[in-house]
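Researcher: Next entry in the queue.
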Amino acid sequence: MWVESEDTGTAGVTDVPTQYTITGLTGADADNVYGLGQKMTMDKQDYQGIEQAYEFDPFAEEYVRVGDMNQKRWYPTLTGLPDGTVLTTSGLDGSGVILPGQNEIYDPKSKTWTERPDLFRYFPTYPAIFQTAKEGTLFYTGSNAGYGPADQGRVPGFWNPGDNSFEPVAGLRDADQMETSGSAWAGPVQDQKMIVVGGGGVGESPLTSKRIDVIDLKKGPKAAYTPGPDLPVPTRYPNVVQLPDDSLLIANGSRDYRGKGASDNLVASLYHPDTNTLSAAADPFVGRDYHSEGILLPTGQVMTLGGNSLFKDAADTKTAPFEQRLEIYTPPYLSTGRSRRSPRRRTPRPSAPRSPSPRPRPGRSRRRG
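Model: Structure for this entry, 369 residues:
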């Protein structure tokens, strides 16, 4: 049962277990049917989902409330479907418990959600689910944000919403280290190749992976992950950004859960799908892990932002603030004549201490803020 206070602030706080009456009941019903609740305080609570949903109006530049979901969700995934509807999967409910498999479809015409019992399937939170070129077939890479048991919903594979069938794929290395990993199309989406990058063990596991694996979805039932190059360092929370020349920038992340032990990575690389190789890129100045992003800008540059480490010291004794500095990465193609834009030269800035690299690092990183 969900209890919501009608009062704001401390007026709605109860420090002891309390009995509640139910409005509308009389006589014996009122005596025999009531609610009991534990203390309800302003202390930190478990994460809890909400049912509200919004569309973003790019012309008005504002979010517009649409119909509520049938389930409250925290950390769900939204996947666009060929008919224009949107599938939402997973999430923690209003009590902070992971949903066992209630998935819903959003209709942008009616602005409403329909729960689909025929699509009942469990996934960990933030499952990386993509629409493929084969109509009626989705692909779950195995990447996720965790929650729930380690032996459920972790296997990658093809999901057919038509009959709710699921066909696992093989070949994934470090399959027990897919929490906080990254997933992205490798090269043009028409090629139907995907990569999974880094990741870690379940929860606060000390395991963290250097793995990059590749899969060709065009092979259908014969598709399987194959090894790609290893990252320079084990990486959770990698920022993976597809670039206009079909390479992918892989930057930031941390070697431990939410940057514990001052483990943020000041490392960046470029993945080349045509050769399945990795080359060095200009390293970032700012460490970023949980709740960080990399965004391709209209200029062809990349902005990195955010970061939510638990601590700011190696001893894990000082709480870290949310990272508010921005960085701009200028890829090498903006300096080689392959782009109509040619940014002016800038005076090189000293970099933060990082692991030495024997390779040159093309491109530039610039810090803002």
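Model: Residues 288 and 307 are 4 Å apart (CA to CA).
Researcher: Noted, moving on.
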